[in-house]
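User: Some background: our group keeps a shared notebook of sequences we're curious about, and every so often someone picks one and asks for a predicted structure to add to the entry. Today it's my turn. The entry only has the sequence so far, pasted here. Could you supply the structure so I can complete it?
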Amino acid sequence: MYGLRLESIAFSLGPIDVHWYGIILGTAALVGLLLAVQEGKRFGLSPDFFMDMLLLGVPSAIIGARIYFVAFKWDEYKNNLSDIFKIWNGGIAIFGALIGAFICGYFYFRHKGYSFWRIADICAPGLIIGQLIGRWGNFVNQEAYGGPVEEDFLRNTLHLPGWIVNQMNVEGVFHHPTFLYESLWNVVGLILLLVLRRRSFVRAGEVLMAYFIWYSIGRFFIEGLRTDSLAFHGASWVESLMNGLWSPMTILFEHGYLNPAEGNVRISQLISIALIIVAVTLIIVRRKTGAAKEHYSDPIINYKTGLPAGASEQTIEKSDDVSSRGNVNQPRDTTDSSMKE
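Assistant: Of course. Here's the predicted structure to add to the notebook entry:
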């Protein structure tokens, strides 16, 4: 009577079930990669550079995301350790994914001889587009939704199509489509990042910082609507601070339910505030100290070769080519060896 809902399994190959969650996350990673590859060409970076980054970064992100989630839900997993690996059922945290990806990226960029800030700037729009697509995996799995709402609110106030409204019906109760709120917020963020990186005043690292600031603002307010937030038992003043910062939302919405047994402070809200403060501070400090003397539009220099990105590979190839030919352009001495004696 509530309409059809989407199934989590897209199709089956014999005994193997292929889940929409995995398809959507794979699509998100691919689109993010293509966006980074396209921008990397402007700086002479090869597609292979980003492909290798993806092959290392995606597993690192998934591992980080799962460890982060399981760590805060350990009571649910400690007696069912095999469930830790069932990521197709959901339960990966974006902040954990970012931690895993950035740790991997830092060492990969250093290994290749490039500044972390320069490459991370290029990847930032790919990250946000990956997140806006990836949230639809939560939609299919019916997770990461907000508190209860009336069906009329979804159909006639938000004017959502029936297939979204139906999926927001969980066991007979309709919920805020927080996955959609965050996805749309990230669409606007993507546009802002694409415009920002073409501004001449932008310094190295600041596109990445803008990504953190924009995403964290949206995540802070949207997180307050959710009913499945990871939480911890924090000091009363921290709880009051989070609630006070979120209070403008109470004009239109109610707080999503937070289980008191799990905590009184939403972890993602606290991390969001911390990221905003750190990002703004880094922009100011790096500019004042001269650490951000490079602009986004400047050539990317490989510090191992001292050459612009792309030029080092071409130089090595030319050098190898000359060496293989030997001194072919030098005059040959055809004098008979016996006459030299």
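Suggested note for the entry: The CA atoms of residues 135 and 206 lie 25 Å apart. Residues 327-341 have pLDDT under 50 and may be disordered.
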